[in-house]
What does this fold into?
Amino acid sequence: MAGFRSLARQVRDPRCDLALRRYSLRKCLERFAPYGHRATWDHLCGRAGFGPEDRSPDPARLVAALVELEQARAVWLTYEADFAERRKKEKHDGLRRPGSVDDWHRMTWGGFGVAWCDDPRLHPREPLADVLHRLISALERRPGSVCPVCDGERLVWRHGLDHEPSAGPVCADCGILVPRPVLTEGALASARRERLLMSA
It folds into this structure.
């Protein structure tokens, strides 16, 4: 099974036919898809200027989508390396029990669904690397009461998400499943109340 870097080489290789180059970009999303496969694909297509169903997009646009994905992956890989180093030091210092950020991190290892978007058409519009920077910064500071990606205040608790965890606070503005560790207990309670009001 090809890894991310070998798939990326195929996307860039002008000797490969266009169908293979597009297919290889789609396969990259099996290795790294911050919003989930469908939402990340929709995002990349929109930002690079080709349709999700376009079978023969301009090769330069495919490469532009790949570059955005690679930049975001570099941000995530740096975070994962820093995370692993921190956990190693904590274990050395006798802190064996992981915290809530660690629980969240285990569910997103490899970068799949880091900023899960259950609705593939509702996701942040900014470059993926910017979104991940904002999310990582939020994980490294005290919890807040708004979406760490768009500063949206409309957080709604949703059940039945196609992700793990299958329930949690979703930003009604940018569509991400907000990691619980970045929100205060008050913000989480408010999101749960919002769900109850919507279902009443």
DSSP finds seven helices and two strands in the chain.
